[in-house]
Amino acid sequence: MRDTTDKIKMDVARKAEIREKLMSSTAKTTELPRHNVKKKVVTTVLVAAVVTAMGATAYAAITGGIGPLSLGRSSYGPSIEEDIKHSMPPREEWSLQGYPDTPEYKACAEWNKFEQSYDRDGKILDKADEEQKRTGINPFGEKYGDYLIYSQEMADKVDEITAKYNLKLHTGMDDGDEKRLEEKVGDIFNDNITGGAYFFDDGTFQMDALYKNKYNFQIRRCVRGYFDTVTVNVGTHEGFEEYTYMTKSGIPVTISEGKDVSGRRRTFITANLEKSFVVINIMPFNYDGEPNNYTDKDIKDIADSFYFDKM
User: Fold this and answer.
1) How many helices (H) and strands (E) does the chain have?
2) Which of 15, 90, 165, 181 is the most buried if burial means most Cβ atoms within 10 Å?
3) CA-based nearest residue to 26, from 152, 135, 143
4) Domain residues of the chain, as ranges?
5) pLDDT per residue over 218-259, tens digit each?
6) Within 10 Å of residue 83's Cβ, how many Cβ atoms?
């Protein structure tokens, strides 16, 4: 059984298996996501919320936040029915690409629905792996190398979705530390932020980061106009309370705070921008497994460490 602490994912266990199989094959044309960041947290934890008082910041009616990101319930194992049978807590899948009125969200939702029911027993993957080992060629590497595609049916679905929503594919995946990231996407955060990231030519990136070398978090920026399939598994969005905070960059963000099923403090920040959609999740623990005892001020300082007006 997977960890139920819900994380930002390039996908769940089956995709980890895909990556392991394809990257260990002899195919020289394979180019798959390389998450060679300082800590290989391919996923990030999120769950429910109880807002605490945060200085003079007032509560506001939220049109954004995390609730609208939901793609619906997802399963821990073979099916939702099996989850219910074994009394697993409900869990939702969330888009990280934007809100339901955007083509990026709609494309992610359509792909997620397809993928949830595709090759559940892994037989197509096994066949693709055998063929790739036999020929030394990944027929999907050149065009779909930054996506985990291993069959013509999957490739056709990507083409169908991108044509339908007029979206481009990510290309040129690379990785590096915070300096390398800023070389790629520009000056978007101050010296309080360090970490490792993977990023694409279009400016989409995901970073495993530290604030003042103390509190760890993840940030994902999805640039509009591109097909992106990364999602979050969460317990549920119900119970979240949210408020707007005006950052020093002059851009409002939504802060959602609460506790997960283990009673740990959770904080989630979203920014709905003109050119991109940004998600920040402050982890409840550090890389050594110790509690992330950040303060209310730290939350705002993390938000203020990013130049959202440049993102």
Assistant:
1) 8, 14
2) 181
3) 135
4) 8-310
5) 999 999 999 999 987 766 656 677 889 999 999 999 998 876
6) 18
